[in-house]
Amino acid sequence: MALPRMLKIRQTFPRPRVADIPGAVAAALAGAELTLKRGDTVAVGAGSRGIANIDVIVGRTVRWLKEFGARPFVFPAMGSHGGGTAEGQLSVLEHYGITEATMGCPIRATMDVVQVGEALGLPVWLDRHAAEADWIGLVNRVKPHTDFKGSIESGLFKMMTIGLGKYKGAIQYHRANIHHGYETVITAVGREMLKKARIGFGVGIVENGYDETARLEAFNAANLEAGERRLLKDAREWMARLPFSPIDVLIVEEMGKNVSGAGMDTNVIGRPSNPHEPFPADPKILWIVALDLTEESYGNAVGIGNADFTTRRLVDKIDMKPTLINAITACAPNGAKVPPTYDTDREAIETALSCIGLTPPSSARVVRIKNTLALGELEVSEAFQAELAKRPELKQLADPAPLPFDAAGRLIPLAHD
Q1: Are 213 and 53 contacting, i.e. CB atoms less than 8 angstroms apart?
Q2: What is the pLDDT of residues 96-150, one digit of tens each?
Q3: What is the pLDDT of residue 149?
Q4: Tens digits of residue pLDDT in 168-208
Q5: Which stretches does DSSP call E strand in 77-212?
Q6: Which residues have C-beta within 8 Å of that of residue 363, sequence separation ≥ 6?
Q7: What pTM was estimated for this model as a whole?
Q8: What's the sign of the alpha-carbon dihedral 188, 89, 64, 28?
Q9: 91 φ, ψ to 5°?
């Protein structure tokens, strides 16, 4: 098959950055008008998302609390992730550099929950260790959600719902989402948590389109909801996107849980993680080829169902138990469906190109990315060259060249400057 030649390009996104992350964390907490007292125990919730500098941010939060005179500990606030076990969730935190040694405080993990209130006629569940603390602090990234669109999506409210509710809460709330909608459930449960649980503060993180920390703010319980809504607007504005639509074939070199909770960020690929709510089909992509699964996913390939073609090397890395736990907890079994699988990258890509209709493969509109987080530098086929000249935020970095495969038919990874 005559494959399209590819052009390496660089996108320019808004790039606000926090220069001194530890300093910004300390300043945000100091200015948040918290009601902590010396000697108070503070449970600091850390999640399972791949957040830039998360170990630095959680670690500085812990140190600030200790300097204040509080007694902090960290706990996993991550619903069903880590295989739905305390040991698995500790392992996820360890991978992100969050350990007792690096944090300088205990880490307490349990899947036990206690009821602290009621919302939408359902019990509101809270991690037992967090419930026993004097205060609870939340640290999470605020970003567009992969399942729905609203004025509150993925962030501190979601952590209060899914994260603090652990496996039991995650199952219950995802089922409730089917009837009430995601935003209604997250908002109702989050507000009940703010009323009934001892939520002391939330640290909201916004990243720019280069996967860098762009903003850090801390909120007390009274200001948390309004603060999160404001940060979500920034997150949407600064989010990285694919440069073109429509696309015949999107080649994704790797997917994984450290890239997105959905494996591939649905806001980037325009495909929802679940069938229960409307989701903008933008950009329009005919076929997606996913080539590999990140090691940091520990076999959790949830979201593989959003790919149309894949490879044997990816499928061989799938641990179906955590993948199914994640997918079924979200009431989205389609997220665990394995697409047509090919022995080599070349076969998978050529098969996708054979299914684009009457357009010759050499003239196809193809985009190649490392993953849905790394969109600053990517490759596009020559079919986009005329459009490139009209887009000042796009810069061509190299002359057209064939897709590079090794002798085994594996695509040689994109080199990033």
Answers
A1: yes
A2: 999 999 999 999 999 999 999 999 999 999 999 999 999 999 999 999 888 778 8
A3: 83
A4: 999 999 899 899 999 999 999 999 999 999 999 999 999 99
A5: 113-119, 122-127, 135-141, 199-207
A6: 4, 382, 383
A7: 0.85
A8: negative
A9: -65, -40
Q: Which residues contact 243 (CB under 8 A, 6 or more apart)?
A: 9, 11, 367, 378, 380, 391, 394
Contact 355, 321 (CB under 8 A): no
| Burial of 222 (C-beta count, 10 Å sphere; 0-12/13-18/19+) | exposed
Structure tokens at 69: 């005179």
Residue 248 phi/psi, 5° resolution? Answer: -75, -50
State the DSSP H helix or E strand holding residue 195, giving kind and residue range, or none if neither: helix 182-196
- pLDDT digits 0-9 by tens, 6-49: 999 999 998 999 999 999 999 999 999 999 999 999 999 999 77
Distance between CA atoms of residues 201 and 274, nearest Å: 31
Q: Which two tokens stand for residue 126?
A: 């809270």
Given a contact cutoff of 8 angstroms between Cβ atoms, the answer to whether 276 and 175 are in contact is no
- The secondary structure of 42-84 as a DSSP string is EEEEE-SS--TTHHHHHHHHHHHHHHHT-EEEEEE--TTTGGG
Q: Which domains does the chain have, with CATH numbers?
A: 5-13+241-402 (no CATH), 32-238 (3.40.50.11440)
Kindly state the DSSP code that residue 143 receives in the 8-state scheme: B
Phi, psi for 168 (deg, rounded to 5): -65, -45
Q: Is the separation of the CB atoms in 36 and 128 below 8 Å? A: no
Neighbouring residues of 385: CB distance < 8 A, sequence distance ≥ 6: 7, 400
Contact partners, residue 317, CB within 8 Å, separation at least 6:
292, 293, 297, 299, 301
Take residue 310 and report the two structure tokens written for it: 């894949």
Output the six-digit token pair for 175.
């089922």
Q: In terms of Cα–Cα distance, which of 8, 273, 306 is closest to 154?
A: 273
CB 169 within 8 A of CB 161: yes
Whether the CB-CB separation of 166 and 172 falls below 8 Å is answered with no
